[in-house]
Amino acid sequence: MTAESSQRDAATIEEQVLEQARAAKKAARTLGMLTTAQKNEVLLAAADAIDAAADEVLAANAQDVTRAEEAGTEPALVDRLRLNPERIAGITGGLRQVAALPDPVGVVVQGKTLPNGLELRQVQVPLGVVGFVYEARPNVTVDGFGISFKSGNAVLLRGSSSAASSNAALVQVLRRVLEEHRVNPDAVALLPSQDRSSVTALIQARGLVDVVIPRGGAGLIATVVENAKVPTIETGTGNCHIYVHAGADVDTATRVIVNAKTRRPSVCNTVETVLIDRGIAQEALAPIVSALQSQGVTIHGDEPGMVPATEEDWHAEYLSLDVALKLVDDLDAAIEHIDTYGTGHTEAIITGDQAAARAFSNRVDAAAVMVNASTAFTDGEQFGFGAEIGISTQKLHARGPMGLPELTSTKWIVWGDGQVRPA
Amino acid sequence: MTAESSQRDAATIEEQVLEQARAAKKAARTLGMLTTAQKNEVLLAAADAIDAAADEVLAANAQDVTRAEEAGTEPALVDRLRLNPERIAGITGGLRQVAALPDPVGVVVQGKTLPNGLELRQVQVPLGVVGFVYEARPNVTVDGFGISFKSGNAVLLRGSSSAASSNAALVQVLRRVLEEHRVNPDAVALLPSQDRSSVTALIQARGLVDVVIPRGGAGLIATVVENAKVPTIETGTGNCHIYVHAGADVDTATRVIVNAKTRRPSVCNTVETVLIDRGIAQEALAPIVSALQSQGVTIHGDEPGMVPATEEDWHAEYLSLDVALKLVDDLDAAIEHIDTYGTGHTEAIITGDQAAARAFSNRVDAAAVMVNASTAFTDGEQFGFGAEIGISTQKLHARGPMGLPELTSTKWIVWGDGQVRPA
Questions:
Q1: Which of A40, A58, B173, B377 is in Cβ range 3.0-4.6 Å of A99 for a Cys bridge?
Q2: Where would one find the signal peptide in this protein (chains A, B) (predicted)?
Q3: Residue A331 near residue A359, CB atoms below 8 Å
Q4: Is the per-residue pLDDT at B1 higher than 80?
């Protein structure tokens, strides 16, 4: 392809994305008016329709998988791409679960009557048009639709090109169900994915797109957040620490650390650095190291028998059976280390000392702070939100696990009987 | 100045801003730990100190005013720049008012105990480092400090170069008071203002600055929001409408429209377009037009006796004694017009019809919707927030009048006794 034709393609793709965004904005105007019952009916019908279309979806997915295998994609990635009857059941089960969740739209957040008789209500309303940019897994396509639709938003889905056939098959079913229920099908659209130009068009579509949420690796998230002209919500980067305080129970510390590292090492709430207070190192270091090593964890640190640590290890989000380990002088040194290297996701302290627990909880700057509990609990489902939108590591709008209410904004509705404001 | 030396200056200014931002971030870590009593003591001491230093502040301000007058600045702008004893009293009164407001830090937003015994609390915490970019008025310098400090944030102030001497004098007093109270004085800093490079450095300081709020004209706001790499909150642009529904009381409509246009035409909540339903135009048009004209308002529209309206008038945020006026067929047409031309600030309907009031409230997409009330009520002080941070016209994080809680984020604090997450 020549540089010129590639530029022409990018211009065409940009125009297509803007067209889809305009259509989504138009659809969004009517979504906020749907009743909860109407939305739930659509979500349940969509689940049934995907179950009924499982054969076509699996056939489309087989094309994606074959293409990926022929391109020599690594097996772990191919596995994330692959659908099977169980995974289809998981996808449609997710839609039914979202249907069962409370509707965030119309909830009155606060309200009052002013001395002049004006009645104020602050009401949750949909954001409007939400964009998701994500990687291989086709289940995010349906998830992204479900949570957006339940919260009254239109959604623009920019999945991976490797899942293009699967995503197209799924979105086709969703749009057909919307039409059957007399809902504007532009409430969900799949953006072109052959190159990055659709991402660029999406994240710069000011006035059409209300928020873009990237779901995927650190590189994808940084690209979206740093180049966006529309608001974004940064998710997921987690360099999480567990600090074993001098007043810790060693058994508790060991169990929590092993759980936080080995339960699912590839997710963002796994622990990446263990900080052990010198005041307890003599009792705690050996059992923690040996428990981790017996589970196949590689320890990077300065102590004998560890892989020697470099500055990079303190920054590392391994997402693997690796962990960094450091001895620290005291609580202040632990917080200083976390301030320097943490990503503001989840930080934990193990201690039986009330003053240390309070100081750590208050002083550490993160979306979630755990006292005597595994970092693995930072999760929308664990927190009881029912749906998994991602974990915000930014401070504006949403912080920590995001549920359906995080896909809403608010509106002030003020009712009066002719009040005017004095000069 | 040569292009080369100007580039060198820009690099120096950028380094200075980053240095100030790093110092502010360091100060911010301790601000969140101050008790409400400590913060209030500082705010009251700052008010007293500015009162005591009134002569020096007024002398510095006189320099700014002289410079502006010599440069031929228009009188309205010079007036905004000018301080006098009454305005100083207004500034210090504002600080005392902020001291009296509830502390937003530490408020528990929600919480629960999970089935496994984990105790969750979502607690309001400071954002960290807040940047304000604003125009001539020196009172914003002290306001910006007061609301940021009360909410536990460090603040970077980028005022207008025309107010440089006044701002420097005020910030010097504030920093001295902080030092006297053993608070890190880098909790407030005045950024260089000789050119735009300090704005650019501020809005791109990712990792150091948590949010930038522009306060000023539409051009300033657009520049900040579109070029920022840090989160921003868009404020203030208001093309507000009042729709006189067929079921309106004409006297109410007339009083509300005249109030919304003439009370303070230069503020963002003034009405800029009046939409009159054809179903009531015969009774309503003449009294509304004549009431507006008797107050010196120029009406832009398609009816006889008006200045002929062009497409630009429907977009216009006049901020003057001008208003656009249009006849519309019905509620749908009014909403369609507002969807097309509105800026999402405040939209009002005048009607005695309950169904119309509900439909307008629910369907119009704006920060505030008024039923039978003046658009002038969209205001933090009117809503009872006590402090005026601006009116957000974006949907993320904050929408409508912003109070102190809008300068906070949240943190999940989770206490347990050794819980681990099952596989």
A1: A40
A2: none
A3: yes
A4: no
CATH class of B240-377: alpha beta
Secondary structure letter of residue B155 according to DSSP: E
Q: Which of B112, B397, B411 minimises the CB distance to A396?
A: B397
Crossing angle of helices A85-100 and A54-70, in 10° steps, is 120
Average pLDDT of the segment spanning B123-147 = 94
Please classify residue B76 by burial: count the beta carbons closer than 10 Å to its beta carbon, then call 0-12 exposed, 13-18 middle and 19+ buried. Answer: exposed
Q: What is the per-residue pLDDT for B384?
A: 87
Alpha carbon of B290: minimum distance to chain A alpha carbons (Å):
19
Question: What's the pTM value of the predicted model, to 2 decimals?
Answer: 0.92
What confidence tens digit (pLDDT) does each residue in A204-245 have? Answer: 998 899 999 998 777 888 888 888 888 899 887 899 999 999
Q: Comparing C-alpha atoms, which of A20, A405, A10, A409 is closest to residue A208?
A: A20
Q: Which of B33, B122, B339 sits opposite A362 (nearest CB)?
A: B33
Length of chain A measured in residues: 423
Residue B254 per-residue DSSP state: H
C-alpha distance across the termini of chain A, in Å: 67
Distance in angstroms (rounded) separating the CA atoms of residues B406 and A167: 38
Angle at A308 between CA A306 and CA A311, to 5 degrees: 130
Q: Decide if A7-233+402-413 and A240-377 have a common fold.
A: no
The b-or-e profile of B345-373 (16+ CB within 10 A means b, else e) is bbbbbbbeeeebbebbbbbbbbbbbbbbb
- The pLDDT of residue B20: 98
* A379 secondary structure, DSSP code: S
CATH superfamily of B10-233+402-413: Aldehyde Dehydrogenase; Chain A, domain 1 (3.40.605.10)
Residue-range domain boundaries for chain B = 10-233+402-413, 240-377
Answer yes or no: are the C-beta atoms of A149 and A34 closer than 8 Å.
Answer: no
The HSE-up count of residue B376 (CA atoms within 13 Å, CB side) is 20
Q: What is the enclosing helix (H) or strand (E) of A134?
A: strand A129-134
> How many other CB atoms sit within 10 Å of the CB of residue A380?
19
| Mean pLDDT, chain A, integer | 94
Neighbours of B316 (CB within 10 A): 19
CA distance A326 to A385: 35
CA separation, residue A73 to residues A169, A187, A219, B292, B337 (Å): 22, 33, 18, 71, 52
**Using CA atoms, how far apart are residues B188 and B179, in angstroms rounded to an integer?**
11
Q: The tokens 């974006």 sit on which residue? A: B394
**How close B212 comes to chain A (CA, Å)?**
11
pLDDT by residue (tens digit) across B210-267? 999 998 777 888 888 888 888 899 887 899 999 999 999 999 999 999 999 999 998 8
A78 pLDDT exceeds 50? Answer: yes
Q: What's the pLDDT tens digit per position in B3-48? A: 566 676 778 999 999 999 999 999 999 999 999 999 999 999 999 9
**Domain range A7-233+402-413, CATH class:** alpha beta
- Our CA-based measurement puts residue B314 at a distance from the nearest CA of chain A, in whole angstroms, of 18
Mutate to test the interface with B, among A113, A230, A421 (most CBs of B within 10 A): A421
Burial A321-356 (b: 16+ CB within 10 A, else e): ebbbbbbbeebebbbebbbebbbbbbbbbbbeeeeb
H helix or E strand, kind and range, residue A206: none
